Task: inverse folding
């Protein structure tokens, strides 16, 4: 069954939100969703760009007070 | 019955915690009110950062090891008998030999390990320096290297975020000194869109790479390696040919964590400030095995261990909480065989490295010796 997992990478300077997402995707099953919380605005463009490049699915981004929640689905 | 603290894992963080507790709870240990027990995998303690120097012949293997019983305070009950299952409901840890340990407080300090086997072809075609056998093989490969294409390939997640840059600068110095740099094409690959996770470090490294002639490819997450044609492929769709492949393989936590259902990939869900395992009051997690999104490094392990010691002592002596972890990380960065810099940050302060200097390089060399004092809890 597909799962949804949240990574709270707010204030993570190293390794940072995208690297955390990459690591989490390796452990996820196809169809699982991962929500990354990031206080780095760069994630709003970085994450969807990388996800498109490797062929996972970008689900969407929600802006919150001082951070963004970016959701990705493992597609392969 | 004494209050028992059980530490699983005798690496850096477990050892600092054990020694710190013995010192701060000396009176309770003398009267038998508190007992500290550690279960580990080996009679020897390895200084992992020293592995970086092995391929370049800059450290002897013997210098990496100490007898764990001598690094540990003698009041610690130490068993070389790896944990096979950890049951946080019944508060029992069963070892491979069948011993059962119970506890009042459990400290999970089982670290992380490399997993080259998760990338097809990597074990056959790759070299690495993240364990002793790999560092030896790389030393042989570098000694035999007469020029050609080297790829330094970085994968997520991995411990010691600065090691990939360090090994690249050290390769440059090493090959230059041997007169082989002009016959070498070195390409560095990194999983995200810059040369290092830390933005200021990436900004500093890029012109340095340009200056010395290191090529780089970002957004490179390894999909597979073909040992026959010596080509490494990324999930992003690119391919690089190599004569010598030096990889920082992806990591996982210890098998016992996953086998005990304590966390996917061996990473234990941990509160980033209290260092408590999510869902447990009496289970603490320290070092590489937490799932906290910060650098997996010795300094992280050290700062976390200091917080954990204060909290355990305070809970045992006075039943109260002492302080939260603020996310502090400090790293030396070797920028060659003769210069270095450092960087620190926490959950709220961004990193800001200073210019490299020879003095900082000497500090790091000194730290290579001081490690043992720090594991003993004297630093
Ligand atoms: C090449 C290299 C260079 C590095 N350079 C640096 C550096 O310059 N600066 C820095 O800060 N960090 C550096 N590090 C990282 C640093 O060594 C680690 O982050 C640190 O050791 C983590 O401490 P730990 O206690 O979490 O894990 P470890 O020190 O790895 O200890 C974990 C221990 O748990 C044991 N264990 C595992 N499973 C079980 C079980 N089932 N039962 C009992 N015991 C178990 C393991 O055998 C091990 O002894 C480097 C690492 C490497 C490999």
Result:
């Amino acid at each position: 069954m597909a799962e949804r997992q949240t990574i709270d990478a707010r204030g993570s300077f190293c390794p940072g939100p995208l690297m955390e997402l990459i690591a989490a995707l390796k452990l996820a099953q196809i169809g699982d969703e991962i929500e990354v919380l990031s206080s780095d605005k760069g994630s709003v463009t970085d994450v969807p760009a990388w996800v498109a490049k490797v062929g996972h699915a970008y689900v969407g981004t929600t802006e919150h007070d001082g951070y963004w929640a970016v959701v990705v689905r493992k597609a392969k | 019955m004494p209050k028992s603290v059980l530490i699983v894992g005798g690496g850096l963080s477990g050892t600092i915690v054990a020694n710190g507790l013995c010192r701060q709870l000396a009176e309770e240990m003398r009267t038998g009110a508190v007992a500290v027990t550690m279960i580990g995998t080996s009679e020897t303690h390895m200084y992992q950062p020293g592995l970086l120097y092995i391929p370049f012949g800059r450290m002897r293997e013997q210098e990496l090891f100490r007898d764990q019983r001598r690094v540990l305070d003698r009041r610690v009950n130490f068993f070389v008998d790896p944990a096979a299952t950890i049951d946080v409901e019944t508060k029992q840890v069963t070892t491979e030999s069948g011993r059962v340990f119970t506890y009042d407080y459990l400290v999970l300090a089982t670290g992380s390990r490399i997993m080259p086997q998760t990338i097809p072809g990597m074990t056959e075609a790759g070299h690495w320096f993240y364990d002793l056998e790999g560092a030896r093989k790389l030393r042989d490969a570098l000694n035999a290297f007469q020029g050609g294409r080297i790829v330094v390939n970085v994968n997520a997640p991995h411990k010691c975020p600065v090691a990939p840059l360090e090994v690249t600068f050290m390769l440059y110095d090493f090959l230059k000194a041997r007169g082989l740099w002009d016959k070498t094409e070195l390409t560095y690959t990194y999983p995200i869109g810059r040369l290092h996770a830390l933005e200021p470090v990436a900004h500093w490294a890029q012109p340095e790479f340009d200056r010395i002639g290191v090529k780089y490819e970002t957004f490179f997450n390894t999909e597979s390696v073909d040992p026959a044609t010596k080509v490494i492929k990324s999930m992003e769709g690119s391919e690089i040919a190599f004569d010598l492949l030096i990889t920082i393989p992806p990591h996982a936590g210890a098998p016992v964590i996953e086998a005990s259902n304590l966390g996917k990939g061996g990473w234990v869900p941990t509160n980033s400030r209290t260092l408590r395992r999510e869902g447990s009051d009496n289970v603490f997690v320290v070092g590489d095995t937490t799932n906290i999104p910060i650098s997996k490094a010795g300094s992280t392990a050290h700062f976390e261990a200091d917080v954990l010691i204060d909290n355990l002592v305070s809970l045992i002596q006075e039943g109260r909480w002492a302080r939260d972890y603020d996310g502090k990380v400090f790293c030396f960065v070797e920028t060659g065989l003769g210069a270095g810099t450092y960087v620190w940050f926490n959950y709220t302060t961004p990193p800001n490295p200073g210019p490299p200097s020879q003095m900082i390089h000497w500090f790091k060399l000194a730290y290579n010796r001081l490690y043992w004092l720090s594991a003993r809890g004297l630093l």
Chain A has a mean pLDDT of 95. Residues 31 and 74 of chain A are 5 Å apart (CA to CA).
